[in-house]
Give the backbone structure.
Amino acid sequence: NLKLPRPTRRRILTVANQKGGVGKTTSTVNLAAGLAIAGLKVLVIDLDPQGNASTALAIEHRSGTPSVYEVLIGEISVAEAAQVSNQSPNLYCVPATIDLAGAEIELVSMVARESRLKEALSSEALAEIDPDYVFIDCPPSLGLLTVNAMVAAQEVLIPIQCEYYALEGLGQLLRNIELVQAHLNPTLNVSTILLTMYDGRTKLADQVTSEVRGHFGDTVLRTVIPRSVKVSEAPGFAQTVLTYDPGSRGAMSYLDAAREIAEFGARMGLA
Ligand code: ADP
Ligand code: MG
């Protein structure tokens, strides 16, 4: 019943923040599920050796499963590695297995080491799945995997936790994005900042929120994701919060954020 505008060209978003535990994976899977449930075709690339996005989307990712690792080393295509999620027939995921842990080092000596994911996500490679959206869930580092994600994308989505030290490390992330823009991907832009784990009972959360809005203006989504037990429980049931508890505040806010992303795209001519 919920319908969102379909972008006229594919949007590839990298979900990045070198800080761990800020909500990259949670935001990736829930935004992806929100867009998919709204009728759009979405592909999630799990680029973190931890494989948390694969787990949350109930995607097989035991060692040896065809995964993003084999895609990066050029053995198989994205279409060959992608699996359909239990969350929606429109939602696909290329899993990460523990085999990806060595890739950061293996990539160093490879040809075109920064653009291997971009090659893997070419129009020809994506023709079969034909996703409207691709979300790349980055590991908590600024190494070659994250660089590959930034080279492959047009947009960066930065989740920021409404906590003390939220802005710490953000300068380094933005400088890395500038380096990628200067040398590898001039069309990359930080299109979206999402405030996560907001706890309305603390004054601090409001301080962080207004500081981030003051800094980044309209790039920050109006929707703020609340801290909610349902959101953190859902992966344990191999679900996103959208199917685990569709009426919860967490689910509603991720749906709102997905709508903002889709409508922003339509407004900006990205769509
Ligand atoms: P990252 O991918 O940046 O490391 P995660 O998405 O894995 O971060 O989130 C870190 C932890 O915080 C996880 O245990 C997750 O379940 C929890 N979490 C994320 N978002 C929320 C939220 N809105 N409310 C409660 N817990 C959350
Ligand atoms: Mg993660």
Observations:
- The chain has a mean pLDDT of 95.
- The pocket of magnesium ion (ligand 2) is lined by residues 24-25, 48, 52 (CB under 6 Å).
- Strands lie at 11-15, 42-46, 83-84, 91-94, 133-137, 155-161, 189-196.
- The first strand starts at residue 11 and ends at 15.
